[in-house]
Give the backbone structure.
Amino acid sequence: MAKLNMVKALNQALFQEMERDGDVLVLGEDVGVDGGVFRVTDDLQRKFGSQRVIDSPLAEAAIIGTAVGMALYGLKPVCEIQFSGFAFQCFHQIENHCARYRMRSQGRFHIPIVIRMPYGGGVRALEHHSESEEQFYAHIPGLKMVVPSGPRNARALLAAAIRDPDPVIFFEAKSLYHAAKEEVPDESEVMPIGRAQVAREGDALTLIGYGAMLRVALEAADVLRDEDGVAVEVIDLLTISPLDRETLVASVRKTGRAVVVHEAPKSFGPGAEIAASIMDGAFLSLEAPIRRVTAHDVPFVGFAREKANVPDVPRVVAAVRETLAF
Amino acid sequence: MPRIAVEPRFQVEYLSILDSDGNLDTALEPKLADNELKSLYRAMLLGRRLDERMVRLQRQGRIGTFAPTKGQEAAQMGSIFTLRPTDWMVPSFRETAAMIWRGWPIEKLLRFFAGHLEGGQPEPDQHDLPITIPVATQLPHAVGLAYAAQYRGDDVVVMAYFGDGATSEGDFHEALNFAGVWHVPVVFVCQNNQWAISVPLKKQTHSRTIAQKALAYGLPGLQVDGNDMLAVYAAAREAVDRARAGDGPTLIECVTYRLGVHTTADDPTKYRSDAEVAMWEQKDPLTRFKAYLEKRNLLAEGLEQHVDEEIAEAIRRFEATPPPDPLTMFDHVYAELPSDLAAQRDAMAASDPVVPAREGATAPTQPGATPMRGQRLTRR
């Protein structure tokens, strides 16, 4: 047992998986000597060599494109895109190839690749360094989209993503990298991809969040407990796609109300799919419309205005109160 | 301070061995055995006859849109002939002649162009990627395959195909750059057929050659007469041997011409002259290589007829393909079907199938029986 922050926990997952499987490679910009700009790949090159931990030239499309080739050959590349805002330069490789190769080749090939990307705001960063763009990947059939919320589940989900035979987009909230430490057992753990967790039980309303927004949801639930005396059930999605509809529906059948929180803009975001899935599975249990607390439908606003854009505890509490009062 | 040269002058060579008038440079003539020459010619001829037949099949609505090979048979066969089955071929979408050489059955390719994804499935032991349509995006895959082969210590060369238009794409430049930095065993084969749909080469690049683009990335680039089978073969042989020896990647620019349409949905009369096409028909790689074989007395009697029969047989097998089962669209999305996708599949299975099965093609499901993979759960 050791207390690790998310950076150390992710680093440990990479160490453990690379020790376990010689086919696992790490590839990206500055991932070798520098250990990644957030140090998630720290020391890996020293341990596993520069053939396995590759400081690639600066080209996102070729990082993913060559990793597709490695995966076609049977290797398991773990790619780092330095910030999710730069992934549009490899989006075609992700959508056209990572997601489709199994289908296109009718099962002859599959792409066991992991694409790690730091995402989200809260770190006073520039444009393209602060956005939340999970919705693009969650919409693509053939991909899996994972967003951990803390050190321990980050380590276990990254291990699961590396062992997964399908391409996994793995979002790491920058604001969580050093936010908190958590007890993590020494031996490696694997959590199932596609499974949400009930982070806190309750009966008044289902509050759904993921990544950096889980903490906001939990703090809002604290406020509601202390000030309103209501027990809000908080669900940590962990995987955006494939979406764990069963857990969401089971919770809302119990609570009758739901609020979704995400950092991505509102329209056509994960909240819409979550709301539709709840309507499908728990329509007759619903006592109120499903509310979404999200970033606004605006491009990057600059970190000086970020707090007004990204959901915070007061906005979530207000949305929950409105939903409870409906 | 004066300017000083930092590198020796770059140079791009052009290789031609057998020109369109039949002149042969015997000093450069590659040492190919008679049976090799014969099988090369047969493969070229098969490519040409199939191409012509496929255009007719498309016009009749029996297959969908495809990109004909006509005119590029030497560029494809001269290069692919140098690969071993254990090497990898990375095609774009116009390499029908080379794909057949690599073992793709004709009826399978026809199935692909008739809209069946099964036609794009390489065999388990086949070291070929399926057709890739987004231009140049397959080139980084070739570099990754070569990196992986090198990482595993396998004796493998990767050959990747693309056209002149692809050299404007970022993926082309990124792939060449990565290949150079990583020093991997890849041969990039550009079929410069002069036209990217309606855009001529002079509007595609201001470079004098495509081959010279390799020099910027620190790899050798060679321009060859792409309608000269012997020159393409010699250049590819050299590049493949270099890659196999651990001496890194090469770019070969095959100067050729697309004698037909871009795809069957294209009308080239809108953008190029008949005179230009006629000029290139004089350089037809097939007639040139045929004349070379004729001189060596290597042309088999009735070859055209044999090739046509082989194609006709394949078309018969293709036409006997059963209609696709729509339910199989769920089989290859993920390794395991997520629950919501399973529900979508079940909903389709419970509804009337989009394409009715032929009568008696499938046995009805017994009540309570567990359905087989791909079997419909219909009421019928």
Notes: Chain A touches chain B through 46 residues (CB under 8 Å). The CA atoms of residues 198 and 235 of chain A lie 5 Å apart. Chain A has a mean pLDDT of 97.
